[in-house]
Input
Amino acid sequence: QVQLVESGGGLVQPGGSLRLSCVASGSIVSINNMGWYRQAPGKQRELVAVFTSGGSTNYADSVKGRFTISRNNAKNMVYLQMNGLKPEDTAVYYCNADSFVGLWRKRYDYWGQGTQVTVSS
Output
């Protein structure tokens, strides 16, 4: 019931910056947390950053101090500002949202199609 679409990926040089955007549609009133994950070839998908419904943020240790997640609830959007990019940041980045539905508040996860970020000189 929730659809997510990412944008903003591309090719950048080490030390460069990118800003990723994700817009949600559908049953947006049910959305709780929103965040970003990434997956590099041959590696597991990992959490990059999360913005909770309560307004708190959490980051993977590898991106702390370089990435910033923000959220605009009025526009149903979440952003990821990435500064000081490194080759190890190269991955497909996925927008994620969760929701809790029903009397027992069953959790559902929703994912975008992903946007490629490549950091190379």
